[in-house]
Amino acid sequence: MLYADDVDHVDGRWYLSGLWLNGIESVTHDRVTADWEDYIALPFEARSVNVVLNPPGVSFDVRVELDGRPLTAGEAGADIEFDSEGHSFFRAYEGRLYGLVELPATGRHELKLSSNSDAFAVFAFTFGVYADVP
């Protein structure tokens, strides 16, 4: 299904732009692109954000933006890398939880993930609000 993002985002909902397939357990990017134009956006209020992916035997990159810009080193989760142009991304290569955002404090933000791969399927997001985990 071709989605157009309406820009009026509410916490707790996913927003899609581009061609996506709604599955029983996931939403999957449904075409190969070249310019990172299709995305999933998620407004949230938390300190940390993770995503669960399960690539089908391939690896691909996923760009990560926070509030419309690349993450900084101080905001990056455990799986985030930075390319030579300053984009924040992670490489999806196996089925697991990927650490995206680790902020110093809980706050209201918007996360945006984009990939050029048609293997990019999002199964779940998880969130953390505590600075220290017991």
> What count of helical segments does DSSP give?
0
> Which runs of at least 5 residues are low in confidence (pLDDT < 50)?
none
What is the H level of CATH, i.e. the homologous superfamily?
Galactose-binding domain-like
Q: What is the CATH first-level class name?
A: Mainly Beta
CATH architecture: Sandwich
- Return the CATH topology: Jelly Rolls
Average per-residue pLDDT, rounded, comes to: 94
Strand content: over 45%
The beta-strand count equals 10
Order of helices and strands: EEEEEEEEEE
Can you offer a commentary on this structure?
The protein is an all-beta fold and 134 residues long. The chain has one domain (2-128): Jelly Rolls, CATH 2.60.120. Helices cover 0% and strands 53% of the residues. The chain is built from no helices and ten strands. Strands 1, 2, 3, 4, 5, 6, 7, 8, 9 and 10 form a ten-stranded antiparallel sheet that branches. A hairpin with a 4-residue loop joins strand 2 (15-22) and strand 3. The protein is globular and about 35 Å long. The mean pLDDT is 94.
